[in-house]
Write a structure and sequence with these properties.
The structure is a single chain. With 390 residues, the protein is of the alpha/beta class. 46% of the residues lie in helices and 11% in strands. The chain has 13 helices and 8 strands. The strands form 2 sheets. Strands 1-8-5-4-2-3 form a 6-stranded parallel β-sheet, sandwiched between helices. The chain is globular, with a radius of gyration of 20 Å.
Length: 390
């Protein structure tokens, strides 16, 4: 962060946080009378009763609903366009994203395309996107059932163009949710490995946002508290998914990390992971980040000494005197959550892929490289992939 920063803060989302807060959906002012409710193609939203609970609360609020249930773990453009057409056909006037980051991100993108002509990639910046301005979007309500992306508190949505193999983050002031309800009771069914993957996504949002060259005093506050909470409580939530205290702490950390995304930014670690999962959609986002994280943060260890030590301070709850303490604590957290080691080779990735990952990351999300603590050379990127491979 610069010595005399100039920054602004505007997160125009109303947050309702806490166990049982989903019940307020029946009485809270919502931005319309007919909602497209967006969920994943999996079974959990119905199996655990989350969908019916949300639909019932909306009915009590005199809201009609239409459900779209095809979203993939790495959501794709085809489904955004299909759901937007359904939204228009059914004359829905707002969109509810219920589930993990993929469902809420998709809800944001659907809200854009329900109001704008052409193809979603006409509005995306980077890669083959045309970068057209977004002048309108339907209002969005976010109800996360996972703790990881923080998308309930930021404007960003990540969608994959499945034929161009481009996975790109995109957003505008219009894609901030109008209302977000974060109820940890909706998160107790997440299995341990996914709890860990999602929690580490939040951790990296915070850690990358803390070392980004656009960090601000506000983002620093959010980032350090998110890092502290995740280091202390993520292993507890992984070990005992029904521990509501741990679930609530991790959920709050994820929301804080989303606020980091609104006031600072991710760095190129996310560009690299998006490039990998654009080609290998079976790679969970959090797992990809974990796999490259040690090598990635080692790359900047001598460029962010004080910032690494501050992160180590809050993780270890003692004064750090070397930047490697942060990397050691990161490795310890991965071990405590049972996600070390994760190697890229486990997901079918080949070493021959590294050059195309590098080019894809530069082409599609090159903007994040400009926010690194210093410019990263291509050779350094390739070394990160090599060290994370097997």
């Amino acid at each position: 962060m610069k010595a005399n920063p100039v920054f602004s803060l505007c997160i125009p989302t109303k947050l309702l946080f806490g166990c049982g807060e989903i019940k307020k959906l029946s009485s809270e002012k919502v931005p319309g009378k007919k909602a497209l409710v967006v969920i994943s193609s999996g079974t959990s939203m119905r199996k655990y009763g989350y969908l019916e609970k949300v639909l019932a609360q909306l009915r009590l609020n005199n809201v009609e609903t239409v459900v779209y249930d095809k979203i993939l773990p790495n959501p794709i453009k085809e489904h955004v366009m299909e759901a937007a057409a359904l939204c228009r056909e059914e004359k829905c006037d707002f969109v509810v994203g219920l589930g993990g980051g993929s469902s809420i991100d998709s809800a944001k993108s659907i809200a854009v395309m329900a109001c704008n002509e052409g193809d979603y990639w006409d509005y995306v910046q980077g890669g083959s996107g045309k970068g057209r301005p977004v002048s309108k979007a339907l209002p969005i309500v976010a109800i996360p059932t996972t703790a990881g992306t923080g998308t309930e508190a930021d404007p960003w949505t990540v969608i994959t163009h499945e034929t161009a193999q481009e996975k790109i983050g995109f957003g505008s002031p219009l894609t901030y949710p109008t209302l977000s309800i974060i109820d940890p009771e909706l998160m107790v069914s997440i299995p341990p490995h996914l709890t860990a993957y999602q929690g580490f996504d939040a951790f990296f949002h915070a850690a990358e946002g803390f070392i980004a060259n656009c960090a601000t005093p506000i983002s620093d506050l959010y980032a350090l508290e998110a890092i502290r909470l995740l280091y202390k409580y993520l292993p507890v939530a992984v070990a005992d998914g029904k521990n509501l205290k741990a679930r609530a702490k991790v959920a709050w950390a994820s929301t804080l990390a989303g606020m980091v995304e609104s006031t600072s930014s991710c760095t190129s670690e996310h560009s690299l992971e998006h490039a990998m999962s654009a080609y290998y959609p079976q790679l969970p986002h959090g797992a990809g980040l974990i796999a490259i994280s040690e090598a990635y943060f080692e790359t900047f260890r001598h460029d962010c000494t004080k910032r690494y030590m501050k992160m180590a301070d809050v993780m270890l709850q003692r004064k750090s005197n070397r930047s490697s303490d942060f990397i050691d604590a990161l490795v310890a957290l991965q071990k405590a959550c049972g996600v070390r080691p994760i190697r890229l080779s486990e997901y079918g990735i080949q070493s021959d892929d590294f050059h195309k990952f590098l080019q894809n990351a530069r082409d599609t999300m090159g903007g994040l490289f400009t926010l690194d603590p210093r410019p990263m050379r291509d050779e350094e990127v390739l070394t990160i992939f090599e060290k994370s491979y097997q």
